[in-house]
Amino acid sequence: MEKVSKHIVDWLNSYCEGSGLNGFVVGVSGGIDSAVTSILCAETDKKVVLLNMPIRQRSAEFLLAKKHIEDLTDRYPNVESHELELTEVFESFEKSMPFPIDSNQLSLANSRARLRMMTLYAVGQAHGLLVAGTGNKIEDFGIGFYTKYGDGGVDLSPIADLTKTEVFALAANLNVIEEIQQAAPTDGLWGDGRKDEDQIGASYAELEWAMSFSGEMNDLTKRQIEVINIYNRLHKINQHKMLPIPVCKIPDNLKK
Questions:
Q1: Domains of the chain, residue spans
Q2: pTM given for the model
Q3: How confident is the model at residue 107 (pLDDT cuts 50, 70, 90)?
Q4: Tens-digit pLDDT profile for residues 64-105
Q5: Which DSSP string do the residues of 113-140 spell out, in sequence order?
Q6: The CATH homologous superfamily of the domain defined by 2-251
Q7: Residue-wise pLDDT tens digits, 25-72
Q8: Please, what sign has the CA dihedral across residues 240, 91, 60, 80?
Q9: Structural contact between residues 41 and 26, judged by C-beta atoms closer than 8 angstroms
Q10: At what angle do helices 222-237 and 204-212 cross, to 10 degrees?
């Protein structure tokens, strides 16, 4: 994966220089995707700001993010970090709602992701930095497993053409700390610590297979059919995230 790493770093450098900005800001969650993305950004030698943004965060996730940030600030002189405790801000937002949004846990989870996105852009704009996305190919283009205008709100996506399996391989090549490489993937948006596989109903390896499947359904096992159905359902219902925003085109004759 060394050639892949170099290609992405070169791409990041080229894009950043073309934008006229100074570097990158990355939200670090303690997961494999943000770990890989942040190292790739650090490899550019551009200014990199890492943000740890806990919101009612479980200690395990918070500590993994903290350990990764400490590892990167030790390894790269161009990296700085900030810990921004957003729980109080989030709770203030909750209280300002005209009705209790905690009745819909998905609304709460997505609101947490959107608050983090707003924070990343505030820091990024203040320092002239691009917001680097951390989504992989399965999440971004397969099943739409991200928050619209949350972790999906980014300036560029360095690893969005890599499957989760490829991200793990790249993580080993980049010497991501072992605890993160061994941790089960989670989006960190739920108080009960549920894993990605718990939410989706299939593993990333299964979803990668489903994304590339082009054979006959009659030849599949019961589990394979179940995975195909999970993938197809999520791919369909999350098209609103993956396609450009619909624009109502007005015929010229109506504008006269």
A1: 2-251
A2: 0.93
A3: confident
A4: 999 999 999 999 999 999 999 999 999 999 889 887 777 778
A5: HHHHHHHHHHHHHHHTEEEB----HIII
A6: HUPs (3.40.50.620)
A7: 999 999 999 999 999 999 999 999 999 999 988 888 889 999 999 999
A8: positive
A9: yes
A10: 80
